[in-house]
Amino acid sequence: MTASTKYALVTGASSGIGRHMALELAARGYGIVAVSNQGKQLDDLRTEIAKTYRADVRTLDIDLSGSKAAEEVFDFCRQDNLQVEVLVNNAGMMIYGEVVERETAEISAILNLHMHTPVLLSRLFGRLMHENQKGYILNVSSISAVNFTSKILGKYLVRS
Questions:
Q1: How far is the C-alpha of 64 from the C-alpha of 114, rounded, in Å?
Q2: What is the pLDDT of residues 50-108, one digit of tens each?
Q3: Can you spell out the DSSP letters for 15-74?
Q4: What domains are there in the chain, each with its CATH number?
Q5: Could you tell me if 73 and 80 are in contact, meaning their C-beta atoms sit under 8 angstroms apart?
Q6: Which tens digit of pLDDT belongs to each residue from 92-115?
Q7: Would you say 73 and 119 are in contact if contact means Cβ atoms under 8 Å apart?
Q8: How many of the other CB atoms lie within 10 Å of CB of 38?
């Protein structure tokens, strides 16, 4: 790909909605930056996209629940001078059971993955999109976010 290739960065690209978003964006002519903590699935996605769409695919195997994850993803793109025009914040995880039975570290990881990292990615890449006067950010969520919150509110808050 040339230096002028526009890229779409998709978190959670190894499976589900993220994988399908990456495939659709590749079909629309974007180079893909596929981000996930599932290395094997990222490799499979890279092979499929490169074969089917002949698009450039960069993969980053990273745990997005880390406190510095957004900066690491941003630095990865900047090192290779990748012009990210589309950001899809899609990575997520689901826990089952009652929130009060979860360890603080697990809850912190979920909050980082679902809130902290997407906001920082949006800020970092959004600033460049603003400077370039072009770009798109899609924040994907699921009913599990509502379910997680409703378990806290519905069961543990006293209603008057």
A1: 9
A2: 999 999 999 999 999 999 999 999 999 999 999 999 999 999 887 777 778 888 888 88
A3: SHHHHHHHHHHHHTT-EEEEEES-HHHHHHHHHHHHHHH---EEEEE--TTSTTHHHHHH
A4: 6-156 (3.40.50.720)
A5: no
A6: 887 777 778 888 888 888 889 989
A7: no
A8: 16
